[in-house]
Amino acid sequence: MNESDETTETIGESAISGNQASIPAAIRDRADIEDGDRVRWRWRDGELSVEVVRQRAGVFAEFEGFDGESETLDHDRTGLDSAGEYNAGDEA
Fold first, then answer.
1. 50, CA 20 to 30 Å: which among 5, 68, 78, 89?
2. For 26, phi and psi rounded to 5 degrees?
């Protein structure tokens, strides 16, 4: 492909804050990026590329959940002393 065949289109920009960058809505919509998806950054031959890694199903597949029954805690709410028995039905 020669240079005249390439199309460059700017569809959004964002500011960097610390080590984080937001993805503009126009890009999220066009690339179908949703909550739970990840982006993989690659640097190759002086060119930056981004790959969207989709996570649409099975996000909580291995999560066993909490059955709400009594659990023994090793600390209180501040993490200092043993809180003893906790029942999800108790009011805090």
1. 5
2. -60, -35
